[in-house]
Amino acid sequence: MHLIDELTDRLALFADRADAGRQLARLLEPLRGTDALILAVPSGGVPVAAEVARVLELPLDVAVVSKVTLPWNSEVGCGAVAFDGAVRLDEEYAHRVGLTGQALTAAVERTRDKVKRRLSLFRADRPAPRLTGRTVVLVDDGVASGSTLMMAVEAVRRAGASRVLVAVPTGHVRALEALGRVADDVYCVNARSGWRFAVAEAYQTWFDEDEARVAALVAPRPTLH
C-alpha cells in the first residue's frame, strides 16, 4: 500500500476533485510511460481520474459500478452492480433493515438500469477497452467502506486485467486495507482513521457531479492532424 504519511488524518486537503487528481497523479508517477489504463468510477471519480490520466499521459475510460441503495436512503448501500452485470448483495444487512423479497429485487433492477444507462451515456458507441493482460488503475474520489470498489476490482479481473490497482485521494484505513486484500496494490494520498468518516471532508469544495459534465470529461479528444 502506498500512502503519504504526513498527510494522514488531514481534513480539507484538496481544493476540489481536479486538485485531488493532480495530487494523486504524483503518487502514481511510476506508471508514466507504461501501458496502464485509468478507469474512473462515475460519477465523482471521473474528474479525479481525468486529471490523473492527463498528468501521466495515460488513456482514460470508465468502470461503471453502482451501489444497490435502500429505497428510503440513497446514501446507504446493501450491495453493488458492476458493468458486466454481476451483482453482489449483503443479504443479511438488507434483511436486517427490512429490505426483502420484491423490494430487494426491485432495488437491484433499478441499479442494473442505472448501470446500463450510465454505460450508454459515458461510453456512447465506443467499444469497451480491451483489458486482457493490461494494468488497470481504478480511480474514485474516495473510499469509505470499499464495497463498490471491491466490486469494480472483481469485474476488471473477470475482464482479463493482469494487474489491478486502486487509487483514491482519500480513504478510511479499514477500507484501504480491505481493498489491499483484493487488489494488487492501493494508492491513497490522505488515509484517515476514526469512527466517523466522510469522503467529502477531505475536500474544500464538494458537490454531486453533473452526468453531462462527466460524459464530456471521458469523451475522446479529437486528434489533430
Structural summary, described in words:
The protein has 225 residues and is of the alpha/beta class. It folds into 2 domains: 155 residues, Rossmann fold, CATH 3.40.50; 56 residues, no CATH class. 36% of the residues lie in helices and 22% in strands. It has 7 helices and 9 strands; from the N terminus they run βαβαββββααβαβαβα. Strand 7, helix 5 and strand 8 form a beta-alpha-beta unit. Helix 1 packs across helix 2 and helix 4 packs across helix 7. The radius of gyration is 17 Å and the shape is globular. The model has no long low-confidence stretch (mean pLDDT 94).
The CATH topology of the largest domain is given as Rossmann fold
Q: Give the helix level as a range of percent.
A: 25-40%
Distance between the termini: 41 Å
Largest sheet: 6 strands, parallel
β-strand number: 9
Outline:
With 225 residues, the protein is α/β, with parallel strands linked by helices.
Fold topology:
Elements: E1 2-3, H1 17-27, E2 37-40, H2 45-56, E3 60-62, E4 66-70, E5 73-81, E6 87-89, H3 91-96, H4 101-123, E7 135-139, H5 147-158, E8 163-172, H6 173-180, E9 185-192, H7 211-218
Parallel strand pairs: 1-9, 2-3, 2-7, 7-8, 8-9
Antiparallel strand pairs: 4-5, 5-6
